[in-house]
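Sorry, any thoughts here?
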Amino acid sequence: MNGENELPEGWAWTNLGTVSELVSGAGFPIKYQGFTDLPYPFFKVGNLGQVNSSTFLTKTQDTVNDEIIKILHAKIIPPYSILFAKIGMAIQLNRRRINGVPCCIDNNMMAAIPSEIIDYRFLHRFLETIDFMQYTQATTVPSLRKGDLNNIAIPLPPLAEQRRIVAAVEALLARVNASRERLDRVPGLLKAFRQAVLAAACSGRLTEGWRGENPGVETGNQLFRRLFGEELKDTIPDDDDPPIKLPPIPEKWNWVRCNSLCDIKRDITYGVIKLGHLFPEGVPTLRSSDVRWLKIDSDDVKTIDPKIASQYSRTFLRGGEIV
């Protein structure tokens, strides 16, 4: 394209109202909802989020028949129409979905029924490039008017080229989706890898070679005696009911309970049970929501009454604690 409004040879400018029929949905009173075995699904705005843009809408919990359709003054939307929200903030989500079966839609939705001059998949992908919020009315509840949408300009290639464009787009999107799926698996893989590394470290496998090269290092018992001035008295916690099954550890390591490794004046403890109301200029107190993955989020730490905090002096954090 050599200019903003120029098109390739054989293409033409048209508008949405020319290549499709825009149809609004109908009201759907509760008394007609909940039927699950009637011929036509009745889609609501929420159904748009139940499938992705490459999947047809075919099923919903609410179905209707010809009699109900007549009562509701609804219209049967033919398959391969493009459905979207026309009222409310759902417009901002810019979801465009294709119905794979004849259906009805509620009055918060609209359908673009393609004519024979445009491939429904081409129209679908084109409408995904349009932000419908720019066409909403400046009211408390945003809404779309049929007249405004009818005037949306569309570059129209020959039908055969539309299909070639769609095929190319679908192939590229398939690659994008495959890459996204692989990226979505990365956090889980990293977490599993981290757990495997920690398990290897805490079982001695990670430093097995180092121990072989350094046979004279002090044992766990010697380390404990050097730090605390006494022998390990409870190397294997065997008085639990039921007994704890401990995995094997290297020869010079020892099992010991966590409380034996804590400051004797600051045992393992719960935090403040009831924080009370926010107390300006009070004592900053970490909540579980502040303890994030590998970090402490201090941006919105609650401060509590110093009188409450004074009852939990053992929980004051000085640095170096594990929470």
Observations:
- Residues 272 and 312 are 6 Å apart (CA to CA).
- The chain is about 25% helix and 15% strand.
- The helical segments are 16-19, 66-72, 120-127, 146-150, 159-203, 208-213, 220-228, 306-309.
- The radius of gyration is 33 Å.
